């Protein structure tokens, strides 16, 4: 079968159809199509994936479970040679773990089926991938120490196994062990420095700990890898705003402006951020002889003033179109007070 070239809106539309009528009708064809789209985009829509997987598994022809096909699925054959239906067992298993409050028993059944085929039929008694899946099952059961034993055993043989390194991070986070979580994240990022999601995850953890400088570093790494993603620019701005000080606030305004520009004026948080930054800057630094008496300082404040005014105008336009009943409140909120002379 040719590789699907779908879009996220198409995935959304298909999921909406399945949720409304497709699952009830047991529409096998569209369930299989949905699973292929999920795999293509690497999405994690567990509830729908689990339901679709169960429906397709129920109707899967027995010949699709022959040893030759399953071997390709479990041990990394080229995707172009693997029948997409044969990844169902593992895909459905992982989805069932994500909905473990209701599907943990089913997850165990799926894992045992996988294990029997891998160990008995294929003769793979020491499958690293099976160990990882068993570790995930132990996680879902709350047996974190046993899960870590599985992951550590895998990493002894394959120290840079990406998915297992990520699972260790998830275990520490589930145990609310922030210190070990950050240590595992930093170790992971030493190896996989281009993983934007990992940098973003680390930045959010540092931000929650009020470690703003470390958070800024992480979010700036995200910008290096994905410079057109306006969320990263806004997150840097928020951390600079939290740090405070004339230079940090001036830089925050610049990052907010970048977020607004890249989102074509749609990032509401960045719009409000511009105004808050301007108000704080004017209140605390407008009269400071050290920061703003020179021409560069005055020019900086003027630029921030202009950005804030434009942001306020944009917010009024947005609310006038979408929520006119709130326009009066918004106007009072974003009103720019004049700086003290």
Would you give an account of this structure?
Among the domains are: 125 residues, no CATH class; 50 residues, no CATH class. The protein is built from 17 helices and no strands. By secondary structure, it is mainly α. 74% of the residues lie in helices and 0% in strands. Belongs to the EMC2 family. It is found in: Endoplasmic reticulum membrane. Part of the endoplasmic reticulum membrane protein complex (EMC) that enables the energy-independent insertion into endoplasmic reticulum membranes of newly synthesized membrane proteins. This is ER membrane protein complex subunit 2. Pfam families: TPR_EMC2.
Residue windows where pLDDT falls under 50 for at least 5 positions: 63-68, 72-86, 337-341
H/E element sequence: HHHHHHHHHHHHHHHHH
Task: Output the number of helix runs.
Answer: 17
- Structural class of the secondary elements? mainly alpha
Radius of gyration: 26 Å
Distance between the termini: 71 Å
Described by its quaternary structure, the protein is single chain
Q: What does the average pLDDT come to?
A: 84
């Amino acid at each position: 079968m040719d590789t699907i070239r779908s879009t996220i809106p198409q995935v959304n539309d298909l999921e909406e159809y399945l949720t409304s009528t497709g699952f009830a009708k047991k529409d096998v064809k569209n369930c299989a199509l949905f699973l292929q789209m999920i795999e293509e985009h690497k999405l994690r829509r567990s509830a729908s994936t689990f339901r679709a997987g169960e429906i397709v598994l129920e109707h899967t022809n027995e010949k699709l479970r022959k040893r030759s096909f399953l071997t390709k699925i479990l041990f990394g054959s080229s995707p172009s040679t693997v029948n997409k239906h044969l990844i169902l067992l593992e895909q459905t298993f992982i989805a069932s773990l994500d909905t473990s409050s209701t599907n943990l028993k089913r997850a165990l059944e799926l894992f045992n089926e996988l294990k029997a085929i891998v160990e008995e039929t294929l003769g793979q008694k020491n499958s690293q991938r099976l160990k990882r899946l068993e570790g995930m099952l132990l996680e879902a059961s709350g047996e974190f120490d046993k899960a870590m034993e599985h992951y550590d055993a895998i990493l002894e043989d394959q120290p840079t196994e990406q998915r297992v390194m990520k699972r260790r991070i998830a275990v520490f986070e589930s145990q609310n062990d922030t210190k070990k979580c950050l240590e595992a994240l930093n170790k992971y990022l030493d190896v996989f420095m281009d993983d934007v999601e990992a940098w973003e995850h680390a930045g959010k953890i540092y931000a929650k700990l009020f470690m703003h400088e470390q958070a800024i570093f992480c979010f700036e790494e995200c910008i290096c890898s994905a410079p057109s993603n306006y969320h990263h620019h806004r997150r840097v701005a928020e951390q600079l705003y939290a740090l405070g000080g004339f230079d940090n606030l001036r830089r925050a305004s610049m990052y907010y402006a970048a977020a607004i520009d890249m989102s074509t004026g749609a990032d509401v948080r960045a719009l409000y951020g511009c105004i808050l930054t301007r108000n704080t800057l004017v209140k605390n630094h407008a009269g400071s002889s050290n920061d703003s008496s020179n021409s560069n300082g005055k020019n900086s404040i003027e630029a921030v003033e202009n950005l804030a005014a434009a942001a306020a105008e944009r917010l009024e336009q947005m609310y006038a179109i979408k929520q006119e009943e709130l326009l009066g409140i918004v106007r009072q909120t974003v009103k720019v007070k004049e700086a003290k002379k």
